[in-house]
Amino acid sequence: MKKKTITFIAGLILLLLGVLASNHFNANSTGAHSLTERQVINEDPTALAQAELPLKDQIAKWIVEQGQREEYYLEGLSYVEVQLDTDSELEIIAGIDGGVHLGQFFIFDSGADGEYKLIAEKDWKVEQLHPGMVKDVELKMIFETVDRTGGTGVDVYEAHLWHLDNGEFKEVWNGWLKGRNAMIAGSHSLLAGSYQVIDGWLYNWETVVKLEDDDVTQKEPPQTTLKVYSFNGEMFELVESKELAEADNKAVN
User: Fold this and answer.
1) pLDDT tens track for 191-205
2) pTM value?
């Protein structure tokens, strides 16, 4: 009888030790970890709200907060990070593709506080976000962005030259690279344009061809206009404009 009592007590002790060991194991596993997470969140309820968003979502948020419009087609948003000035921070160029001739163009610059601010918003439909660099003009880095505009029967590609000046967006010139007008019968035409920047001077020429309504047959010989601009420190200013004679047209074209 005494032996059975000792055995029973020993078994009870082992059972209690097992329960204690089990509780200790659980306290140091997922239950305690989850409680710690909940305590941290409860102590700082803004912790989740301040979590960093993916960059594309963050840019969309900036556009909604800082943009000029009430609504944007954010499903068509894309972006690139690029160096546009002399500081160490990359700028962000974003674009919204809203259709054949519809879109928006944005530039975000990082301020002294490290926060990105919207410094340019244009109603430009941009097919290539990464800008083309023209060259330095009086120690300014001038960039090119081409947007597509128009409407029913009209299709235009327009070049915009711009730079950043102490966090400000400044456009210094714009001109057509292509313009097709097929809107009204009897007035169809095609414009082809281009430009070059050399030593602070901008040379721009545009050739216009009047077409039959088939958009192929020429009505008249092409007519070319040459324009010359000089950089005045702020923008390219028109100095000379002239229509070229037919012999000169052949040389240009």
Assistant:
1) 999 999 999 999 999
2) 0.75
